[in-house]
């Protein structure tokens, strides 16, 4: 198995799920279900394109196509990027990969999810200084007209205010988890209303990529190494004014801490 | 339909006869002109709206009696003032309904296709109720009640009218329902009279009575009129006119599809959902002062407008009529419309052959031609003297005449000529719930289900004979918990060619594995069925939903889910429970004036939030507010 060796010695591995909208696996973790088979399929060489990117031993496995947009203006594309560290080159890589697989030059909305610092709460505290570099990178996409609106996830009231005050391009949304409770904290609700920051909702777990998900992605492959996630990205394409989802997929990037080089 | 206007005098049944074929053939021409002009309408957006029918009740607190107040028409006149003055952006629009104790309210402008709209539905319903309530006297209440418990009992209206025999009511010849309770707009009395004249006798609705310990057996009503006595069956509650059906309220919704194909698809895939929603929304166990053994009104209305002759009913050999017809003008649909659905059209569809050939010759596809030709087996029931000769290219009155008196579970609606409205589908089975919260829940649930069907390309198709069998079960006493319903196990077919998976996943008619509880259909069951609610939740994870809308939607899903699982009672079961546990109830199936009074006082208190009713809907945490959506729907572009 030549490919097992190539992969085991690679520095990093990015995987694209393709459109997973129609995989209605109700009981399974969607991320696992979406990305699991891809590595295996590549290893048994029935996927014909080991796209090696510029840098040596950075592999990209493209597990499928997305949605062919007849008219880009009818579609709203939203990305949610789950970063594993406050690292702006990683964000750049995630966004560029997404623009590539979606074959578009423009994303309607990007939401940033930072690594949680309080896993007991649905709301996180972030100082602007911590996220500044990443936010500035995101702003640069807006300035280049590659992204229309930008926002964050799970910010508490203070953190949202801090970001809003210091950012050159303001967040338009804060996506929060309201599984347990129907009302957002008063200070957050008040600040969001005053400054027209939309409070959107999600049901993602606080820790989106636990070790078992990474294990699942590489399971039954014989690939060795110490693989850690550097980002997870989810994209959705929705038909505007009809609210019909056309496409939903994942990009994940894993880095190998035991790479031979 | 706009404001109910009319031109000229309504034709009597005799006067109408020479024009029956005229209306039918021009109706077809009007459909064709419309179709040719509009079949290629591109890309309409989602727009949708609900319709709630309300009743006006008058409470006599001193004598513990409730009556229906016949003020609907005069109220409607006032409620329509703003619309008559062509004012824009109204909160609500109002229409008279069949009975003069009813009004029908809709949102003033359609809702649009974005999630924040789900948060204004309930608020708008509340505003509507308030708008009417402000016009009422102190002892009157507006209620969204599906059936008035003592409809047809002595003096059930205010003002009350004496009925001494069929001659008291020349329009309906009813022994129970005064002609004065029929809205005076000529359409309604004309329909009533002409249904009776076409049929050749009064309609006869027989609903099984709920047999309690002290209910006489056999249960036989005292009827002093030969025609009625001949129509009444033992052990049944007998009702004898259109008012018993069309005088009931319901909850309907209409949505605009993006094109004709999407409209056909939604029509088809929602048809199997109809019986499920009818059972879930069931709210009508009481008729004419008795407890019935059914929970939902459907068959009552079907019987109330059944204009089939004895020949068409198959009771006499065909002489004057063309064919035997299986169903009333009001009933479940008989054929699917999309070409993929054709193999499930397994019940006999009677057609008007002439209409069908005209449609086929004009290039209409087989299934749509069959559908229209099926509607066209019915005769027009009303016609106005100045609306006989029309411009078929620019008017559609004759088409609408037949279309709008085919009251089926789903309605496929072509765009009206001269408007910007696209192809629409109407979902017509739900019963009205007591509160705005519940009505909003049903409406939002169904609109979300359409988004889920379109997003995941789900396939709910099953033989229509199974849908009909489900329809029958869905009206039974406690159908939610007691019955099992046919439903597809495998609804996810988008990965394989449609026709193949359809055939593979549905193994013939007698396969019991295809029967599920409503709980399984709504809430899902591991390895059996994904469930509507888990599918909706999954869908919601892929679209932008604001906090407010998400919380409202969660409460709505919670209500529907728990109604399905039995944790909450349906309105029908709750009403049944209230009556049979009332201290004055004598286990004889009779709902007395004072029982009805106490029931309706309680319903009113629940609606107003003065009494909490955990059995019906628990304790919703969140109430949607009436807020004008302030965000531009076009945001993001």
UniProtKB/TrEMBL annotation, chain A:
Origin superkingdom: Eukaryota
Gene Ontology MF: a single term: glutamate-cysteine ligase catalytic subunit binding
Involved pathway(s): Sulfur metabolism; glutathione biosynthesis; glutathione from L-cysteine and L-glutamate: step 1/2
Keyword Hydrolase set for record: no
Gene Ontology CC: one annotated term: glutamate-cysteine ligase complex
Entry's Gene Ontology BP terms: glutathione biosynthetic process
Record key words, sorted: Glutathione biosynthesis
A Pfam family that the UniProt record links to this protein: Aldo_ket_red
Domain NADP-dependent oxidoreductase: 69-198
Classification via PANTHER family: GLUTAMATE CYSTEINE LIGASE REGULATORY SUBUNIT, GLUTAMATE--CYSTEINE LIGASE REGULATORY SUBUNIT
Family under the similarity heading: Belongs to the aldo/keto reductase family. Glutamate--cysteine ligase light chain subfamily.
Record text on subunit structure and interactions: Heterodimer of a catalytic heavy chain and a regulatory light chain.
Protein name stated in the entry: GCS light chain
From TrEMBL, chain B:
Alphabetical list of InterPro entries matching this protein: GCS, Gln_synth/guanido_kin_cat_dom
Annotated GO biological process: glutathione biosynthetic process
Pfam families (UniProt xref): GCS
Pathway assignment: Sulfur metabolism; glutathione biosynthesis; glutathione from L-cysteine and L-glutamate: step 1/2
GO terms for cellular component: glutamate-cysteine ligase complex
UniProt catalytic activity: L-cysteine + L-glutamate + ATP = gamma-L-glutamyl-L-cysteine + ADP + phosphate + H(+)
Primary enzyme class: ligase
Keywords from the UniProt entry: ATP-binding, Glutathione biosynthesis, Ligase, Nucleotide-binding
E.C. number(s) listed in UniProt: 6.3.2.2
Any one GO molecular-function label of the UniProt entry: glutamate-cysteine ligase activity
Subunit comment: Heterodimer of a catalytic heavy chain and a regulatory light chain.
Similarity comment text for this entry: Belongs to the glutamate--cysteine ligase type 3 family.
Name this polypeptide is given: Glutamate--cysteine ligase
Organism (species): Ciona intestinalis (Transparent sea squirt)
């Amino acid at each position: 198995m030549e490919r097992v060796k190539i992969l085991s010695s690679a520095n990093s591995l990015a995987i694209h799920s393709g459109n997973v909208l129609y995989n209605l696996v109700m009981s399974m973790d969607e991320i696992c279900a979406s990305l699991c088979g891809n590595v295996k399929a590549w290893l048994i060489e029935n996927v014909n394109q080991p796209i090696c990117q510029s840098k040596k031993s950075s592999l990209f496995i493209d597990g499928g196509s997305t949605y062919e947009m007849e008219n880009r203006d009818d579609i709203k594309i939203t990305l949610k990027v789950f970063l594993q560290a406050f690292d702006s080159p990683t964000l750049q890589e995630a966004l560029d990969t997404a623009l590539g697989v979606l074959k578009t030059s423009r994303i309607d909305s990007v939401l940033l999810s930072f690594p949680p610092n309080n896993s007991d709460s649905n709301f996180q505290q972030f100082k602007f200084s911590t996220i500044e570099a990443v936010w500035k990178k995101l702003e640069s996409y807006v300035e280049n007209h590659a992204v229309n609106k930008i926002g964050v996830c799970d910010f508490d009231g203070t953190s949202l205010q801090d970001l809003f005050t210091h950012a050159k391009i303001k967040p338009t949304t804060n996506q929060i988890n309201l599984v347990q409770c129907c009302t957002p904290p008063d200070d957050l609700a008040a600040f969001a209303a005053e400054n027209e920051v939309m409070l959107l909702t999600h049901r993602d777990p606080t820790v989106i990529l636990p070790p078992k998900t990474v294990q699942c992605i590489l399971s039954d492959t014989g690939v060795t190494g110490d693989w850690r996630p550097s980002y997870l990205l989810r994209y959705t394409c929705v038909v505007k004014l009809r609210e019909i989802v056309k496409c939903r997929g994942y990009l994940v990037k894993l880095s190998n801490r035991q790479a031979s080089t | 339909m706009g404001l109910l206007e009319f031109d000229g005098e309504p034709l009597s049944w005799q006067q109408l006869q020479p024009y029956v074929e005229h209306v039918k053939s021009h109706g077809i021409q009007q459909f064709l002109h419309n179709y040719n002009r509009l079949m290629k309408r591109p890309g309409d957006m989602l727009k949708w709206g609900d319709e709630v029918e309300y009743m006006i009740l008058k409470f006599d607190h001193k004598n513990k009696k409730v009556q229906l107040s016949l003020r609907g028409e005069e109220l409607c006149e006032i409620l329509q003032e703003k619309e008559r003055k062509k004012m824009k952006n109204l909160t609500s629009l109002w229409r008279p309904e069949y009975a003069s104790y009813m009004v029908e309210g809709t949102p003033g402008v359609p809702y649009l296709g974005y999630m924040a709209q789900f948060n204004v539905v309930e608020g708008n319903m509340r505003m509507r109720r308030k708008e009417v309530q402000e016009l009422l006297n102190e002892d009157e209440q507006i209620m969204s009640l599906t059936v008035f418990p003592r409809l047809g009992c002595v003096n059930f209206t205010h003002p009350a009218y004496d009925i001494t025999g069929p001659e008291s009511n020349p329009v309906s010849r009813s022994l129970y329902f005064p002609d004065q309770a029929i809205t005076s707009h000529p359409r309604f009395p004309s329909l009533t009279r002409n249904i009776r004249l076409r049929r050749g006798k009064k309609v006869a609705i027989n609903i099984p009575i709920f047999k309690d310990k002290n209910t006489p057996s056999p249960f036989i009503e005292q009827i002093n009129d030969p025609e009625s006595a001949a129509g009444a069956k033992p052990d049944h509650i007998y009702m004898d006119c259109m008012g018993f059906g069309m005088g009931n309220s319901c909850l309907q919704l209409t949505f605009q599809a993006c094109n004709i194909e999407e409209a056909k698809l939604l029509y088809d895939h929602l048809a199997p959902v109809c019986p499920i929603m009818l059972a879930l929304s069931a709210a009508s166990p009481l008729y004419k002062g008795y407890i019935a053994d059914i929970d939902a009104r459907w068959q009552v209305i079907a019987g109330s407008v059944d204009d089939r002759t004895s020949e068409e009913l198959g009771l006499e050999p065909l002489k004057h009529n063309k064919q035997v017809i299986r169903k009333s003008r009001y009933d479940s649909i008989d054929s699917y419309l999309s070409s993929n659905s054709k193999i499930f059209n397994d019940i006999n569809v009677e057609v008007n052959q002439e209409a069908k050939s005209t449609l086929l010759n004009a290039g209409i596809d087989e299934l749509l031609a069959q559908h229209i030709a099926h509607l066209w087996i019915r005769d027009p029931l009303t016609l106005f003297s100045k609306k006989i000769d029309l411009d078929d290219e620019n008017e559609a009155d004759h088409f609408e005449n037949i279309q709008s008196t085919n009251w089926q579970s789903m309605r496929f609606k072509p765009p009206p000529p001269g408007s910007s409205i696209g192809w629409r589908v109407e979902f017509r089975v739900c019963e009205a719930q007591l509160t705005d919260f519940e009505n909003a829940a049903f409406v939002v649930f169904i609109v979300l289900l359409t988004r889920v069907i379109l997003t995941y390309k789900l396939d709910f198709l099953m033989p229509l004979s199974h849908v009909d069998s489900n329809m029958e079960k869905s009206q039974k006493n406690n159908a939610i918990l007691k019955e099992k319903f046919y439903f597809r196990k495998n609804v996810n077919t988008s990965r394989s060619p449609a026709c193949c998976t359809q055939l593979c996943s549905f193994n013939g008619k007698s396969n019991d594995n295809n029967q599920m509880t409503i709980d399984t259909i709504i809430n899902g069951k591991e390895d059996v069925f994904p469930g509507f609610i888990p599918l909706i939740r999954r869908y919601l994870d892929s679209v932008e939903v604001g906090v407010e809308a998400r919380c409202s939607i969660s409460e709505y899903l919670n209500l529907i889910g728990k109604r399905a699982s039995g944790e909450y009672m349906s309105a029908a079961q709750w009403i049944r429970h209230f009556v049979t546990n009332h201290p004055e109830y004598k286990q004889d199936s009779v709902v007395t004036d004072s029982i009805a009074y106490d029931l309706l006082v309680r319903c009113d208190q629940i609606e107003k939030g003065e009494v909490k009713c955990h059995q019906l809907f628990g304790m919703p945490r969140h109430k949607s507010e009436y807020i004008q959506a302030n965000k531009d729907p076009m945001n993001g572009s």
